[in-house]
Please model this.
Amino acid sequence: MTHDYVAIDTLKFLLYNVHKVEDLLQKERFSEYDKTSIDIFIDSVKTFSDTALHPFIKEMDEKPSVFKDGNIYVHPQFENIIKGAGEMGLVGAIYDFDDGGMQLPSTIFHAAYFIMEAANNHVPGYFGLTAGSANLILSFGNQKLKDTYVPNMLDLTWGGTMCLTEPQAGSSLSDVTTLATPTDKDYYQIKGQKIFISAGDHQFSSNFVHLVLARIKGAPAGTKGVSLFVVPKNRPSENGEFTYNDAAIAGEFEKMGQKGYCTTHIVFGDNNDCRGWLVGEANKGLSYMFQMMNEARIATGRMGAGIASAAYFSSLKYANERPQGRKLNKSGKKNTDEEQTLIINHPDIKRMLFTQKAIVEGSMSLIFQTATYVDKEMTSTNAEEKEKYNLLLELLTPIAKTYPAEQGIQSISNAVQILGGYGFCFDFMPQQYYRDIRIIALYEGTTGIQSLDLLGRKITMKKGKALELLAIEIQETITAASAFVDLKPYANTLLENLGLVQKVIGSLMPHAIEGNYERFLADATVFMDFFGTIVIGWQWLKTAVIARQTIKDGNGNQPIAFYDSKIHTMKFFYTYEMPRTKGLAKTLMNDKELTIKVSKELF
Amino acid sequence: MTHDYVAIDTLKFLLYNVHKVEDLLQKERFSEYDKTSIDIFIDSVKTFSDTALHPFIKEMDEKPSVFKDGNIYVHPQFENIIKGAGEMGLVGAIYDFDDGGMQLPSTIFHAAYFIMEAANNHVPGYFGLTAGSANLILSFGNQKLKDTYVPNMLDLTWGGTMCLTEPQAGSSLSDVTTLATPTDKDYYQIKGQKIFISAGDHQFSSNFVHLVLARIKGAPAGTKGVSLFVVPKNRPSENGEFTYNDAAIAGEFEKMGQKGYCTTHIVFGDNNDCRGWLVGEANKGLSYMFQMMNEARIATGRMGAGIASAAYFSSLKYANERPQGRKLNKSGKKNTDEEQTLIINHPDIKRMLFTQKAIVEGSMSLIFQTATYVDKEMTSTNAEEKEKYNLLLELLTPIAKTYPAEQGIQSISNAVQILGGYGFCFDFMPQQYYRDIRIIALYEGTTGIQSLDLLGRKITMKKGKALELLAIEIQETITAASAFVDLKPYANTLLENLGLVQKVIGSLMPHAIEGNYERFLADATVFMDFFGTIVIGWQWLKTAVIARQTIKDGNGNQPIAFYDSKIHTMKFFYTYEMPRTKGLAKTLMNDKELTIKVSKELF
Model:
């Protein structure tokens, strides 16, 4: 089956067969849905993506969003897109019915966005950030804030943003300096600057609702003094009219990729007339934000996987059409009388295609795996079970963000390479995807930040309980795989790798216990690479078990080759990617401290 | 010592201390030179790069070369550059004095171009390709061709190109179809199309001299029927006037990077009036071209390393200036009362900087190592010794091309990452270098082609003699390193890796012996990664030995920290990069044939 940018058959196989979304639909929260209605939703998103999104991806790169006279102007197609997405309810897909939402599982939400981002990664951030910011208001805001803002955001009449980063602070949110000064009214005066604000503005939404992290005058230093505010671009007044709220778009960052999607610089209160409304309690802004952060991080990884998916299919199409070179004969020579062969017949091209397939589908599976934990945590009625899913979610989230970002870059580099010199040229898509994806490892916490989170917080939290729970899940897959003769060797490899994780952590933990956190975390990024590879190995084995079982049971709705391809790609992953873990473990267990206490003169 | 784009101190240390260029200068061919005159030459190239090249790199990206009315227009600064480079003799740097050249060692030529490419990679290809094409004429052309073309090329009044690739053939040169029809004059009529012709045209050279691979009517199929022609854009006539030679620039490829450097599509003989002059003998074109290929491949790798060098220093500067975050205290918390620390103090940033330093300087060393073999082969008077250096050159060339290309991409990805969100923005340079370098793995034979060359030809040639010779060279370094207590463990690691190479080759060779070349070469690219890493490990150990000896002897002209930095970076390479070889070896010794005889349905 050929695809343009996403393998819908694989996406559904992962959803229904591997991650058993139908079990989720048994929960009361999702009881309005069955497989048929989910299929209809996914197929409608695919149609929307085919018609409204994918045809415009190249144009959006060629004609980037521009900043002019204090406003951002995006590609004219956004008008149709915003209208379509609003009508389809994509913003409120996971919200309660009572809040005007569709009350879909998070897993389905992510599947839908995966499709859209694979079709055109310059666009869905506009819905996704509106969804995230409206969700913050729904979760922590008072009724008046909800009533004032959420309905207009749900249909994208208004857009929403998340304003965290400041010029002087970067990733360091404890250094946020945007100031909120109390007034004798229900609002605060806001003053400060925010940068790198994605989806900050455009000409097709009449208002923007910024969710801003700021420090109330006199608040404690650090993250404990950070509060969350709703700061609209235009503030509604009692009489239903709107006043400009002194929230100025001061510029746009020009970027190497994702050019259709604006990245703005916003100045709040330059004329001392910027009003902000506190969300929830004072000084709890960061904890509110972090409750949305897991979803935002899964979403970022998902976008990376989506871009890599599009690049994979772009290079697969080329490999299936481009004749070049010949097979070598028994004496190692080519017979030039033969016609040239399609390049897909060269092993090196197949290696580059399987590498992409392994990364793209492995990432897709991890995104869904992580999202099912969101749904399971939310719908669970048992405290212990709820905690279990929460811990699993917390542990996997930084990996779900990072693996598709970092390995997605590698994946797309393979797509570029398959096209040879054409891969570098604007006439073909891989070069654009290669540029687009590079932001994913920076968005929403860089790879370094995610890695500190993984090793410094998630591995150690509750005395390692999250890792214990994950090991149980992985062990289940190992047990299931061991029942099949052809999968057993891979199950053994995964088991060995689980042991290696213990060994590595055993070697690192003493540093934490001694209070030497700098040493403990020095190679956190290497640990992320190591652990992430093993987690994707788990996802692939899990996928292969279901594929093998389906072939055995003879009850699949896809051709046998489809299931074979999953088992084959799993083997490829274990043969070409998993062996990396040994070298990474060796690096992690080194005792040389080469990046600690090193003088600057050494560079 | 701070640098903008290249570490001149390191470059000279590698040239004089590690690769002992002064020994080369003892050879008669180079006897006009000593260290002082070489230093003057290098320093003048650095000054030229500082003033004429580096200040324009960003502009050349922003205002790319354009195709208009059959001509290519490049950045106006090229006028000064062409004039300066012509006056400095950069085209004929390695030619004989008798040919109007400077008769410099190839090693010095590559050092000079390294500096220029680090300063501005959009430019030196214009000189380099003119140098390469004039060299083809000098080496294989008759006196008339030499007299007609070379003098004007030497000072860049005319430019030169290499025309290999055709639209239908790509890397497959056996499928060249450009036709050369004999006439009763001294020329052939040329008809055909060439694509991806770098430096194909610009407004500041009055003529271009294309070195074109074509097939003489009736010539045998395949590479055995390919001849080499001089095809000028404008042909000189007896009376000293010039006639347009029907060699039309048909367009330019728009690219994601290296935009100041044109990549043209040339149509020869569309009006049946394109004349070409045979270089050397008929049907030997490819062998002539391949005698230039080693230099061209070293040059391409050098360009990759140069770009990575510039990105490294760009990110190092940022890391030294940007405050963000704080160190963790004993309880794993940050003290927000402290001022923010410079990001260079974070271990993860240092890891990313050392990764770059290890790749950039390791690549630089390999380029020089390979170039010394060019010089040694050329100046050797002993047949056995000449063969030895030729074999070492042949073996290392595909690695010198590929390691800086592929690892250069990884290196610059680290530079982008160090800048956080700014790394993705046009305001900073790493994103440009990240785009620029991506072509290096495609130019001059893709990574896949280089890898087939390495494993399929170079490892096996003369029954593995090249590898035996390399093992002797590496063993010398191991022996020297073993004399120092702190280097001995790394010497042992390198020795183990040499053993691993033997093991891997031992596992692959039976496939070749059985005539199963497809299987033998299926993972050639993985082998390249594996073997290339070990070769760079050798270069680093060799560098560390010299650094340690210099500290011991107390006779260095640099601060001790300079030599310490070499030893430290060697340790970093062995701790963070070398461990990869074990996993790669495991992949290479797999018996699964996952990329062979796989049906297309599996994608």
Q: What stands out?
A: The first strand of chain B starts at residue 66 and ends at 68. DSSP finds 19 helices and twelve strands in chain B.
